[in-house]
Amino acid sequence: MKNTFGTSLAVSLFGESHGPWIGAVLDGLAPGIPVDESFIASQLTLRRPAGSISTARREADAFRIVSGVFEGRTTGAPLAILIPNADTRSKDYQRGPARPGHADYTAWVKYHGFEDYRGGGHFSGRITAALVAAGAVVLGALKAKGILLATHIARCAGIDDASFGENLSAELEKLNTLPFAVLDEVRGVLMRKAIEAAAAQGDSVGGILETAVLGLPAGVGEPWFDTVEGTLSHALFSIPAVKGVEFGSGFALADMPGSTANDPLRIRDGQPVTVTNHNGGINGGITNGMPLLFRCAVKPTPSIALEQQTVNPLTGEETLLRVAGRHDPAIIHRARVVVDSVTALTLADLLVLRYGTDWLAE
Amino acid sequence: MKNTFGTSLAVSLFGESHGPWIGAVLDGLAPGIPVDESFIASQLTLRRPAGSISTARREADAFRIVSGVFEGRTTGAPLAILIPNADTRSKDYQRGPARPGHADYTAWVKYHGFEDYRGGGHFSGRITAALVAAGAVVLGALKAKGILLATHIARCAGIDDASFGENLSAELEKLNTLPFAVLDEVRGVLMRKAIEAAAAQGDSVGGILETAVLGLPAGVGEPWFDTVEGTLSHALFSIPAVKGVEFGSGFALADMPGSTANDPLRIRDGQPVTVTNHNGGINGGITNGMPLLFRCAVKPTPSIALEQQTVNPLTGEETLLRVAGRHDPAIIHRARVVVDSVTALTLADLLVLRYGTDWLAE
Amino acid sequence: MKNTFGTSLAVSLFGESHGPWIGAVLDGLAPGIPVDESFIASQLTLRRPAGSISTARREADAFRIVSGVFEGRTTGAPLAILIPNADTRSKDYQRGPARPGHADYTAWVKYHGFEDYRGGGHFSGRITAALVAAGAVVLGALKAKGILLATHIARCAGIDDASFGENLSAELEKLNTLPFAVLDEVRGVLMRKAIEAAAAQGDSVGGILETAVLGLPAGVGEPWFDTVEGTLSHALFSIPAVKGVEFGSGFALADMPGSTANDPLRIRDGQPVTVTNHNGGINGGITNGMPLLFRCAVKPTPSIALEQQTVNPLTGEETLLRVAGRHDPAIIHRARVVVDSVTALTLADLLVLRYGTDWLAE
Amino acid sequence: MKNTFGTSLAVSLFGESHGPWIGAVLDGLAPGIPVDESFIASQLTLRRPAGSISTARREADAFRIVSGVFEGRTTGAPLAILIPNADTRSKDYQRGPARPGHADYTAWVKYHGFEDYRGGGHFSGRITAALVAAGAVVLGALKAKGILLATHIARCAGIDDASFGENLSAELEKLNTLPFAVLDEVRGVLMRKAIEAAAAQGDSVGGILETAVLGLPAGVGEPWFDTVEGTLSHALFSIPAVKGVEFGSGFALADMPGSTANDPLRIRDGQPVTVTNHNGGINGGITNGMPLLFRCAVKPTPSIALEQQTVNPLTGEETLLRVAGRHDPAIIHRARVVVDSVTALTLADLLVLRYGTDWLAE
């Protein structure tokens, strides 16, 4: 249903880039979950632009939880979080030519010109701040249940990060503390240089985010439609710039023979496990107890300083456009915490459906 | 909601590989849509195994529409289609070791051993026959509205098909008539030889399906969650073996600079169009009027004749398994019509949401 | 969503009065629930017309479960039940004048004349047979969980039945065995005589059904929208002829002072209970552990033999109509088992949402 | 889904009686609907307590629309309205004995003691202010489409108002301007005196609200589950104190013969109409173009000054309680605008489903 996602545990989003507040409502949270405002704040900091590789727009993200929390814990009633838009320079934005790669033209067609066009309005990546705040509540609850997840920049500007290694749990813990989440610091330095180089040319870069989830029980997900892949990808494609999602070995599976792709099973510590994990922890749409692995393709930021060919929907005329305002030469390092939030929200919904409304607090 | 997909126009699936009937229910169809049973039959034929590159299982697919159609047209009430399982050899299947790459183990965990394990039960690709029958009704209605879609085998066993060309409409029309849907016949021959070679080795192959949709109005989809990418991928990942979905240039966008990835706009015939289509006809989750383009990674068929290492969930012991019964060395050529059906159902749902319940028949 | 009801446990209906089959699909059932086909058959018998107070139409209701059950228990996959329409005399029905009190005219407007008009098509009370079959599966599972429910004809043709007494559990058990469900047999005889008298005049009668549910845990339901009252009434109003639903003392509460309507609380056997039960076991939309009580107003059967003034939608002309075919002078005694089914399905959905998908089989 | 209602056009609620803000989010509004803040304010005034028959709690209801409106019109993005809780005297409320007739005990059980108990928390009638604000936006849009609705106090404290008369349109227009909505002013005076008399005794009264909707097109609603009666009642039972809903002649239909209850049809001005309207404008769950009529039973306000017998859930002990704080001796006159809002939201959802997302602004 449009701006709401989830069935047993649902998140709703509202707000525009240049409105007074953006917000998220979480409905279906178990009562009694501790809400750690400092963790929410730190997640928002990870999403916030910083340094030479991000837009100059700065938001304090002075969020406020206005319902659903009482004496530090969830009440079971909807939890609403508001975040003020402190630093909005509306004069930077006028209805004008459609920015290529943005939703300006599609919003114009869909909303017949009534959309709030300032800064992308409701389509703005700014809205993901609300998603991150909501996700932080659920990430904390999942962690208390032994479910740990993190995302790294597997590729950026053509540079690959290292792959996940043997000690996945420690790697995930570490990634969650890094502002620029890579497994190999040296590659991270190269990526940042490449981002700065693109920025210097008035251009932007994209990449690939890779996520791992540990501790998910086997048996979660449905055989048709509400598969783990289907529900996760549904949510992940909401993240602006995500244009591809693959699970396990994903597109590389297309070139494997079945004898390789079929992860053989064996018993370890009394539990069936797979020897390889080409299927990314999912068979038949349902978790098999192995690490859940997926990757998101993130396109380069569409706001670039270079002049571009476009049209003005209002006049119906072709024009050249040099996008004014503040730009991110890359958003992949900021998007990573959005992926984590969306993943947490989606998995929690599947888990609550399976184990009941109180499970997340038990 | 589990085995149902769609909001304004929803499809529900039921049935097992070795039960008496499988079926689909379509709810939300406009009244007055002509239902062409011969087209349904021909779509089922495209899904059905045939020749040396498919399983020996043969189903007449003698479907029966038992409700929702009166005097050759939809009534507006739910349309239920039943397909009998004529050729079920249950003695080929006994509860035994979990077949690697299949849902046997995850079904065991999720359903606590109560699942119908014969032939994969409700997880069987057999259920896609019901999906194809339901999709055929909607494909016909979309075509009458000027919306044309088709899928080709863009890659199989490491062999690439040709790319879509200038005359996309004619290519789509032609693809829809081919049992083995490739743009370049010679590549198709090579692919089939590679499939036969894999079969000869007791192995299987996968590939990539690429779909194009023409004639979609701009302005369809939602900015958050119910994006075109999100809703389509949600449904596509239900197709057994699909492990990746990408839109437009997809994962290749990760390596492009923004100046390339941002499809510039111009006016052609009075309408804004993009010069390139790296975004696959979608900006901000919403159609922009360009062809909708996406690709699905299809893993190799998990049922192979080669001996595999696995476990028996019942006994908790490791074992070797040689899967008996009938196998497809590839399902990609059969899956293509399932992708078309799922695409038609998903897009029709978004269109009905936008234009109202009668639109599909107007 | 139209012909589907429920979130965690959903039921879908399809079929028409004169189609080959009607059916129901139950999605979200826990795996491992025993399915007692003889209980389904006996529930269908209670719904089936019988004797001088019912239509002459007779259906064997030779239902068939075609999926979701394996070796006598639910598998966790969708359970589909088909019921053939054996005794359809289509020649009795021609598109003609709209029968007053029926959906003939509204179906004509909504479906633009494409509806299957024979015998009311998809609007026919016949479809409730599928609902009863589906409900029977869930009623059995609820009973195994200690949740007992039954309905009596609290009023018919102006004659009141006795009220529920002290030994509610025994009364409910007994009601479930009666073809004509009244607490006071003498009143039942009077009701049946009144029905026969109406039939003799070519007319029909209505009444009030009262339902009690024992053993529901406290804490089920939601404060806004998905209240127990809201979800139950949503489903109950689908039963053809139900035009009013009230909980506890219902409309009589409108005339009570707060000091009477507020059921005082006390402790009995260590548990909070209410001294009275004017709120019908629900406060703030949530069960309080007392018996759930509600009443449905059932209008008189619209099919009557008397001549009626009406219009022919096809010609747009006024006309007189004498409805041919078979009529029920009352359906309240048959509707009671439909109320039970709808109640079981709705409560089970709320319970599964709260306690998880496996709860119903635990 | 819990605190959200609607499919094509959905409303979500959040907030607690003593939190900083309450709010509503409307998702699915067509772009371009004029938003009249003064009308929202006037609707909130009608809901607000006033004079000797209401609680002394006064709220300025200084609502703020924080998203979804741009330059005075809806944008098509979610519209979020926040209302501050200005006058909260939390010291009046301590967790203590469960107030009879309230949700205190059920909230305790459902939320395991984590609920915000102050002033009823999320169960408080205060939340209906957000519902009224959201409803006002939709009421305005419906009126622009020629759909007019209003509610009167059909009965209060045992005193009946006059019935709707011939000039229904003028009556509805007038009712919408009245703080105490009755058709017969003299009866209104008597009702208010009865309310004051109850207040003087520390008690409270209830009543019946009757709603009429004019201008609804025929053909809206679904045959099963999403009937007009089912969807409306689902929403109406969320209104605190509503314990019964009946359509048309409702429970009185139980005593009518079919020959009376079946509203005969005739042609007037070229359109089929019914001579009587016992079915309240709905046949088979679908509007027939006649006025939609329904009645809600409103129980007496549970907060009364009289001493009551109850239990303390925390200690598990019986106790006597005299509820401190501010009380309404009746809420029926304030609930009427909540009924209008809920009705508008529910009908708009059905209309948007049928006619498409843009319809409400066309």
Main attributes of the structure:
homotetramer; alpha+beta; 8 helices; five-stranded antiparallel sheet; globular; about 350 residues
Fold and architecture overview:
- Four copies of one chain form a homotetramer.
- Chain A is α+β, with helices and mostly antiparallel strands.
- Chain A contains eight helices and 18 strands.
- Chain A has helices spanning 37-47, 104-111, 128-144, 168-175, 185-200, 228-236, 258-261, 332-355, and strands at 4-5, 10-14, 21-27, 64-67, 69-70, 73-74, 79-84, 148-156, 159-160, 207-214, 242-247, 265-268, 271-274, 282-283, 286-287, 292-298, 308-312, 317-321.
- A five-stranded antiparallel beta sheet of chain A has the order 1-2-3-7-4, with helices on one face. In chain A, strands 9-8-10-16-11 form a five-stranded antiparallel beta sheet. Chain A has a two-stranded antiparallel sheet with strand order 5-6.
- In chain A, strand 12 and strand 13 (271-274) form a beta hairpin.
- In chain A, helix 1 (37-47) crosses helix 3 (128-144), helix 3 (128-144) crosses helix 8 (332-355) and helix 6 crosses helix 8.
- The model of chain A has no long low-confidence stretch (mean pLDDT 94).
- Chains in contact: A-B, A-C, A-D, B-C, B-D, C-D.
- Chains A and B meet through strand 1, helix 2, helix 6, strand 11 and helix 7 of A and strand 1, helix 2, helix 6, strand 11 and helix 7 of B.
- Strand 11 of chain C pairs antiparallel with strand 11 (242-247) of chain D, so a sheet runs across the interface.
